[in-house]
Each structure stands twice: as C-alpha cells, then as structure tokens.
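[[Sequence with tokens]]
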Amino acid sequence: MDASTLIKTDEKTGSKIKEPQECLVILLNDDYTTMEFVVEALVAVFHKRLDEAGRIMLDVHEKGKGVVGRYPWDIAATKAEQVHAAARRDGFPLRCALEPA
C-alpha cells in the first residue's frame, strides 16, 4: 500500500473507503505573464487574500515557481484548468503544475 494513500473502513458496510489523493498546485514563472494577472488569478480562482496572493506571486517571480495550495486531485486539476483558461483568454502563457503532496 502506498504510504500517501489512506484507506478507511466504513463501519456499516465493512467496505474500504479510499481517501482522495492530494496534490500541490504550483504556478510556474514565464517571461510574459504580468504580476498583476498572477495576483488576479490567485484571488479569483484560489480565493487568496491580496497579501497572500502577493507573496505567492513574488515566489513565482523570484524563485521560478510558487506553491498555491494543497487540494484533492480533482479539485486541483479543475483549478489549474481555470487558470489556464483565464490565461489563454487574456493572452498569457501562465501554467500550473500538479505534484503529489
């Protein structure tokens, strides 16, 4: 059994319930996406406060990537696609990566 996968037993049925795998959403730096757009995406998609969004944006800008948060895989994938769609709509190449937590 993978150490990152939790399995619980349903007391009523005795069947095993597998917890969803979590992953980190990471924004990746590029040379074209504006800092303002990154902050807007963090606020709109991930519901970050402005101060936290600014900190993450600076990590992306200065370190090349910034960890946005830890989510169940399906939610993380949906949020990443929302960022990609907004970036495409506004003409930016901003990308998100998903890594197992």
Notes: The first strand starts at residue 7 and ends at 9. Helices lie at 35-46, 50-63, 73-89. The chain has a mean pLDDT of 91.
